Amino acid sequence: MTLILAHRGSAGTHPENTMDAFLEAERVGADGIELDVQMTRDGEIVVIHDETVDRTTNGNGYIKDYHFKDLRKLHANYTFKKKLFNKQKVPTLSEVFDWMKGNSLVCNIELKNSIMDYEGMEEKVVRLINKYGYSDRIIISSFNHYSIVACSRLDSSIEIAPLYSTGLYMPWIYARSLGANAIHPNQKVAPDEIISESIKNGIAVRPYTVNKAHQMKRLFKIGCSAIVTDFPEKAIKMKEGLQ
């Protein structure tokens, strides 16, 4: 059964990485959400994709230079194309975890520390996961593979998965070398044989970002472990139609 993970919430229909987007993912019946975390100047773990606030908010500058109280003054969905939503604040990871108490969704946390070296991010994220008792509901992923290994060393019960966007030779072997039980490839570099062989070797495969109908259909038909999509409702309806 292929799981549906809502990319940045339901980012195709709602403002990405906002509580509105996560609520929509829950409403449509997604199996989980994917979100991105950065860290403010004063050490708060916040949910936003870019290293700067420029693209999605009415502010400008690097998140690393913002104090949390100033970041919260920004309009997190300011540039979203549909103006149907009330003003949203940039969420904290703690706020998302509080909301998760009311559901059973899986949460894939992408550490956005490939460009910015957020010192102490891994420890803060793992500490929060343990505080809420979510080690069995969380997947930590990153393009910074050193970082996910660091997380695993802090708590080996939390699942880790390397993100990658170029082809890997025998990625199931690479995953094992990291202590990971899953890989998160760009769907463009995840051909059927790589997915099938990885799963056969005990490594889950969760490609991103799977938005087109033909991509979804292909991955459902081969029994891919999960897909990460901006359109969870569309994916769920397609999967149901194939059953």
How would you describe the overall organization of this protein?
The radius of gyration is 17 Å and the shape is globular. The chain has nine helices and nine strands. The longest helix is centred in the middle third of the chain and has 12 residues. It has 243 residues and is an alpha/beta fold.
Keywords:
243 residues, alpha/beta, 33% helix, globular
Blueprint (SSEs and pairs):
Elements: E1 3-7, H1 19-28, E2 32-39, E3 45-47, H2 68-71, H3 93-100, E4 106-111, H4 121-132, E5 138-142, H5 145-154, E6 159-164, H6 171-178, E7 182-185, H7 192-200, E8 204-205, H8 213-221, E9 226-229, H9 232-242
Parallel strand pairs: 1-2, 1-9, 2-4, 4-5, 5-6, 6-7, 7-8
Antiparallel strand pairs: 2-3
Q: Which class of secondary structure composition applies to the elements?
A: alpha/beta
Our estimate of the beta-strand percent is 15-25%
Please work out how many helical segments DSSP would assign: 9
Give the topology string: H per helix, E per strand: EHEEHHEHEHEHEHEHEH
* Ends distance: 10 Å
Number of strands: 9
Shape: globular
* Rg computed from alpha carbons, rounded to a whole number of angstroms: 17 Å
Major sheet summary line: 9 strands, mixed
Portion in helices: 25-40%
